[in-house]
Amino acid sequence: MLNQLAQTVQPYTTYTPTTTNTSTTANLGLVSLLIVLLVIYTVFCTITFWKIYTKAGRSGWAAIVPFYNSWVYAEIAGKPGWWGLLWIPISLTAFIPIINIFTSMALLGIFVILAIGLAERFGKSLVFAIFGLVVFLIGYPMLAFGSAQYQGNSKENQPPEVPPAYTPPQPPATGPNPPAAVPPAEPSTPPSVPPVPPVPPAPPVPPAQPGA
């Protein structure tokens, strides 16, 4: 009887839960999927920015160098290179209450300014800049693989203005023109008046008679 009881109890004592193994396998599969997606995303972003940097006349390998890629990105957008590194000190304040709210807004403003500058230098509008910032996986590949060409700053593309060379005034080929000759004025002649005939002399008066 004891043998029968032992045989009955044995299956319950040797039971191994399968729920835990299934959950662990699912978690490992999810982590593996996330790692694969992260690798694909990283490779895609690297190729995209490599192409953008090349279009802008910069070295494509700058897209894979940490920190330096941010510096070059800011310069391509028309800002000083240190603008691309402002996210480093701002990120250090992410765990400080209240302050992190303002620093996050400042970081967002920097990203918007750089995105607008990048879009303008590729001949795109403000709407495209906001679109490219919000829909990153569509906007930036359009710059990289589309027909947009890097135009840079309009002032940078213009050659430096060279002041014109000084040229001394040249003497006139001929001497000064003499004043035009003025014809002499004709003498004024009085209007012709018919001559007045001479007055005849008065007849002589006869002398008076004496004794008259």
UniProtKB/TrEMBL annotation:
Ranges for region Disordered: 153-212
Compositionally biased residues, Pro residues: 160-212
TM segment ranges: 28-49, 86-119, 126-148
Secreted in keyword set: no
Residues making up the signal peptide according to the UniProt record: none
UniProt keywords, alphabetically: Membrane, Transmembrane, Transmembrane helix
Protein name: Signal peptidase I
UniProt source species: Candidatus Chaera renei
Organism placement in taxonomy: Bacteria, Candidatus Saccharimonadota, Candidatus Saccharimonadia, Candidatus Saccharimonadales, Candidatus Saccharimonadaceae
